[in-house]
Amino acid sequence: MQAFYSLLELLGMLVTDPRTGVLIALLIVAAASDWRVYRIPNWLTASGTAFGLIYNTAVPMSTHAGLLWAFDGLLLGLLMMLPLYALKAMGAGDVKLIAMVGAFLGVPGIFFAVISTFIVGGIAALGFALFNRALGRMLGNVKNMVQIMMLSAIGGFRPDAHIDASKSVGKLPYGVSIGIGTTGYLVARQLGYL
């Protein structure tokens, strides 16, 4: 029964606090765009980031929230995704979308949203690889990426890696995983699980 009331509160929050509703709407548009054309538009991430920063400054969620809190979330989201972008495992639109989410959620919310996104993305990637009978290639690619990340961290140089098209498992619209993972985190937080 408590879960039902928590979900009602979440629905009420969509009306009383536009922050959550706007974030979910932006995530739906981004996921749909990524699904259809494998691109997340810059206008969406830029306007969403601006809204998150401005709204959190004008109407902070709590006394410690505000512009710096929102900017810290943006920066943490960006820093968590940049290694995957450097390895060409993720597109720039995905990185900008997570940074936008950070502007809405601040710290530590963005950390949990990114972890949720990684879980959803991992499950989607496994399903995609199994469906395309390419699990061995995918696991080999993951092994290579981890090795390159470790070597670049130890050696202190920027990784210069890419996966050959012949070894690629295919394109996965990661904006969908970001949308599902972030929304899942918001619901779990509202239900009191996080």
TrEMBL record:
Q: Where are the transmembrane segments?
A: 20-38, 67-86, 98-131
- Could you name the domain of life of the organism this protein comes from? Bacteria
EC supergroup of this enzyme: hydrolase
List the EC numbers from the record.
Answer: 3.4.23.-
Which keywords label this protein?
Hydrolase, Membrane, Transmembrane, Transmembrane helix
Q: Which InterPro entries match?
A: Prepilin_IV_endopep_pep (IPR000045), Prepilin_peptidase/N-MTase (IPR050882)
Family matches, as Gene3D superfamilies: 1.20.120.1220
* A single MF term (Gene Ontology): hydrolase activity
* Domain Prepilin type IV endopeptidase peptidase, chain residue ranges per copy: 22-125
- The answer to whether UniProt assigns keyword Membrane to this entry is yes
Concerning Pfam families, the annotation shows:
Peptidase_A24
What protein family does this chain belong to? Belongs to the peptidase A24 family.
The identity of this protein, by name, is: A24 family peptidase
